[in-house]
Known about the structure:
This protein has helices at 2-75, 81-95; strands at residues 101-103, 108-111, 116-118. It has 2 domains: 2-96; 99-127, no CATH class. 0% of the residues are buried. The model is unreliable at 121-127 (pLDDT under 50). The longest helix has 74 residues, at 2-75. Strands 1-2-3 form a 3-stranded antiparallel β-sheet, with no helix packed on it. It is mainly alpha-helical. Helix content is 70%, strand content 8%.
Amino acid sequence: MNNKAKFNWKFLLVTAFTLIIAIILILYLSIIRQTMYLESSEHLDEISRQMAVSIEKQSENQWNMVNIIYRYFSANADQEWSSISDYTKEKKEDWGFDSLCFVDENATYYDKDNSVSLLSYKEVTTD
């Protein structure tokens, strides 16, 4: 009976030690998961801030360009569309544009091929 009691104590100690290690590992993994989530969220927030700053700077430059184009169109309103198109092709490299499109107050844009599309975040996000 003494051997059986020793065996039970050894078995009990090994089982308790194994359970303690398992609990510690589970807690450690949950802490790691939470830390990774927080760091990833912070990283995505920082990327979002950087993109917002970049878009803001880009928008300022674009509005300056819109003013230049508006003044040109106002001064040359009697010209045909082809001469205006030639002007935009000529200035394309100076302005840094690949193409030119117009956006109206309803967030609809029109490009040189008369393609029409809607620039609305409502179609992209599901808020």
